Structures are given as structure tokens and as C-alpha cells.
């Protein structure tokens, strides 16, 4: 391709043209195959061109593509909401359907705010989130995210949000503290932040149960989320779990918070919800929040043209049905254990691999200059971008990141292959990733 009128992410390079997909493989215009080791950006949970999802989409397009939600609901939206609520944490009563993750965060923030207005606490307006987090790219969601690099040039446009220390044991847990003490220290910081802001003025705390785009599948230490839940409850603050990336089965349970033994007030989901077959996201809301709005103004004052899009809901329902029917959560757990074992075998002793982490088929590899000191590579080397390029050259898609660690850029690779990945494909993923990491590091010398 010599010229393009698409404004691509990179304004200097045109990516290959994806023409066809099958299972965990994507094929470009020259027929070259790429193993989708990251599910795009943790999206493609069923892989590409799944026949059941295609059939459901064909059936829906023959019946009805779209009806505006100010006039109608649709069968696929109702069925999908019922399915999601049935499998959601206790007390969840409704799903609010949007077109993606950022929209889900925006809607969750507005729902939290409206809830407090409805129950007579309009002074609650402050949002607290975590450093080193990503919650989307619309202005509200970007403001909530705590990634310095993504925020920098837009900072003057962003609403004020308070950012506390994330739970990132590899970097931040002190040698003289246990995981419990570390979690307690972070919960205390949150508690003090609420106090400082005036706890009756705080509306919501937003956190990713497993951190994705900024840190590469960082799980919290045991008990951290239970303590966070307690702190939020003590101050009457809503807990919003952002499961846009880690939710919908990616970590081996439908919702990642199930493994933390907490029930958030609102959960945002997207990506794996539609598996990439259609753009869709949702806010899963607790009954008491919906009831406050029902019994108050009777109207959620928010909305977009494509809310509850019939095609998107039909595709998503098919994705969720396949996950249940084919017992894919169990498969995520077994293939996830297989991926971890392979990564540890291939990279566990690598001189530049500092950490291999994650849960289910949501794994991260953190690269370091020096394993002993955890010193990062010089950010100017953009190692993560080199790994991505080398991986693509070897026919592998991985999601690279240069997160900000204490003001420095670190390098991570996120792996999030489709749940249907086979053992042989896991082998290929590991071999190609190892080759890409070695080739990228060699380039920097
Ligand atoms: N929240 C999290 C945790 C994400 O990882 C992302 C995207 O990567 C978003 C929100 C934004 O989702 P979207 O890109 O669909 O707007």
C-alpha cells in the first residue's frame, strides 16, 4: 500500500492490511499469518470468524440492525442483559449498554454522580483513582486514568481526579513488609485521601482489578481489594471496578473481582463482551443504585445514539453463549496455567525479564535492564515498541507498553490470546515471543 487516507495511530507508517481471520490467526493481504497473542487488545476471546457468532449476526441483520432506545428495546438487548445479570456478582440488577470501554467509564461516573444527587448527597463529586492506570481516552475517562504519558498534553482539558498509589508488588512492596502489610498500607493511603478531600465529598474510587494497558496484567496482593472495599464503605464512597480489559472471563472467572471476594457498586465491561465481533461495552449496576434513580427522577440522564445496539447485543449474546456452552472459563484456567508454565520455562531465567505475572489468559512480562536492581531500560530505546515490531516480523501479535514507573518509562508485553488457543499454538506463541524479545534487545546494543 503506497498511500492511505485513513488517519492511522502512527502518522508515519501504514500497518499491514488484515484481510481474513480464523481461530487465533489473522492473515494480511499477502497471505502472511499472525498468531493473535494479545487478542488485539484483550478483545478477541473467541478468536476470529467464530461460526456461531457469525450465524447469530446474520440472523439479527435479517431481522433488525438497530432501533433507537428512546423508542424501543430489542430482544437481543433484553436477553444479553438477563444473561449478564444472572452471572454477575450478588446484587447486580441491570446492564447499561454502550459502544465501548471509554463510554462505559463515562456512564459509570455519571451514574455514580446521579445516584448521590438522587439520594440527597449532591456534595459528593470527587473521583479517586490510581496512578499507572488506564480507563479510556475520552476526556472524562482520560482524567480518571493515572498514566502520565497519556495524560500529559491533554492535562489542561481534564477534570480534577485524585490519584493514589497502585498495588504493584513487583515494584512497590517493600522488602520489610508482607503482602498483607503492603495492602494495608495502600488502603490506609486511600483512607487518608478520602479524609483529606472530605469524605462526604468523595463520589467514587475507580480501579482495575487486574491492571492491563499501563502495567501488563498486574494483580493485586491478596486482601487488597477487600480492604479497599471496607475503606469505601466506611466513607460511603462507590467502588467502580473497571473490568473493560480483565473482565468477561479473561482471568478465568467471568468477572475478575470474583477472585477478590468483593462486590463493586458498578462494574464496567467491554472488549471481551463482544469479542471484537461488534463494538459494545456495558455498566453492570447494583440494584440499590438503579432503584435510587427509579424512585427519584425516574430517568438516567445520559445517553448515546447507539445505546443497546441490536446487532452489537446479538453478537455479544452469541459470544457469551459460546463461552458458557463450551465451558471456556475452565479452558482459560487450564490454558492460562499452560501459558504461565511455558513463559516461566522460556523466560524465567532470562537476564532481562524481571517479572512474569497475571491470571488466566491475561499475562504480562516486564523487561528490565538489570534483574537485581529492577532498573528499567532507557526509555529512549523504546524497547516495548521494538518487541512489537520484531514480534510482527515473526508473525506474532503482542500488546507492548511503556508504562510510567516513578516517572520513568518501563517496558512490558501483555499477552491475552483467545480462550480457544491450543497447546501447539501456546508453544508457537512462546517461541516467537522469546525470539522477538531477544531480537529487540540485540537491536539496542
Ligand atoms: N478501561 C480499561 C481498563 C481499558 O483497558 C480500556 C482500553 O484499553 C478502556 C477502559 C477503554 O476502552 P475503549 O478503548 O473500548 O474505549
UniProtKB/TrEMBL annotation:
Keywords attached to this entry: Aminotransferase, Pyridoxal phosphate, Transferase
Protein name as annotated: Aspartate aminotransferase family protein
Pfam families to which the protein is assigned, alphabetical: Aminotran_3 (PF00202)
Entry GO MF terms: transaminase activity
Keyword Transferase among record annotations: yes
Cofactor field: pyridoxal 5'-phosphate
Superkingdom, natural source: Bacteria
Phylogenetic lineage: Bacteria, Pseudomonadati, Pseudomonadota, Betaproteobacteria, Burkholderiales
Family affiliation: Belongs to the class-III pyridoxal-phosphate-dependent aminotransferase family.
Record bears the keyword Transferase: yes
